[in-house]
Amino acid sequence: MAGAKVKWAEGVTKVNGAEIKGLFDPVATTWKAVAQGAEMETGAFLAKVSSLDDAGKKAFMDATKIPAVQVGQATLSQASGTTVNNLSNVAMNNVGFYAYSTGAAPKIWATNNVSGSYSGTPSTSGLPANNVPLSGGGLNANFNVNQWNGSTWSATVAGSGALSSGSYNQPIQFTGGAAGAIQPATGSTGSFSGTGAGIAK
Questions:
Q1: What is the pLDDT of residue 54?
Q2: Which range marks the domain in which residue 113 is found?
Q3: How far is Cα of residue 27 from the mean position of the Cα atoms in its chain?
Q4: What's the pLDDT at 30?
Q5: Strands 139-148, 132-136: parallel, antiparallel or unpaired by DSSP?
Q6: How far apart are CA 95 and CA 107, in angstroms?
Q7: Which phi and psi angles does 52 have, rounded to 5°?
Q8: 43 closest CA partner among 96, 110, 143, 115
Q9: Are 179 and 6 in contact (CB under 8 A)?
Q10: Contact 177, 144 (CB under 8 A)
Q11: Would you state the pLDDT for residue 31?
Q12: 34 beta partners
């Protein structure tokens, strides 16, 4: 399995992978399972895999079960000059899509460069009206803030489209989240930055 986690209160995202083994008893109709794997903070994961050659990526995946072969990349951004839910210039830069092998469908996505500006406290109600539309690289996504406490923020991310670069150029769907810090920690206007991660299929 491969996945991602958003730690809302801490403003941190992580990717993870694991191997799952289970046992089903058809007589008692019970089952049990155990998983072994690893998780990494998104920025640390991206720094690690960018430093590895093919053999290193294979060893990394064997050890962690986290997909490390980039099969596509896109930058998704909000239309210039627009403001939605008090947010503008929202961008998820260099979003990488990762699989277990070249040409395979991606299992996770990750970026260490999410940014934007705010001109007031955004609503965290999760209503569709608060979706910030992002697009780029053949993909479209909605960015919806669900936590904003003055120093950290988080948002859900959901999108789809066809990857237009890399070894996998097929339609995909992706979901997950983004989180990070607000600058300044107090104020009615400023900027925010962070990382993002999630699953893809």
A1: 96
A2: 2-20+31-200
A3: 41
A4: 87
A5: antiparallel
A6: 13
A7: -100, 145
A8: 110
A9: yes
A10: no
A11: 85
A12: 21
In a domain, 25, yes or no: no
Q: Kindly state whether residue 160 falls inside one of the protein's structural domains.
A: yes
Distances in Å between the alpha carbon of 194 and those of 67, 130, 198? 21, 19, 14
For the chain, the domain total comes to 1
Cα dihedral 89, 113, 2, 66 in deg (nearest 10)? 170
Mean pLDDT in each 10-residue stretch from start to end of the chain (201 residues)? 90 92 85 83 97 97 97 97 97 98 97 97 94 97 95 96 92 97 85 97 94
Give the length of the chain.
201
Tokens standing for 55?
A: 């053999």
Contacts of 153 (CB under 8 A, 6+ apart): 11, 145, 147, 179, 180, 181, 182, 192, 194
pLDDT at 76: 98
Is residue 73 in a domain? yes
- The neighbour count for residue 61, using CB atoms within 10 Å, is 21
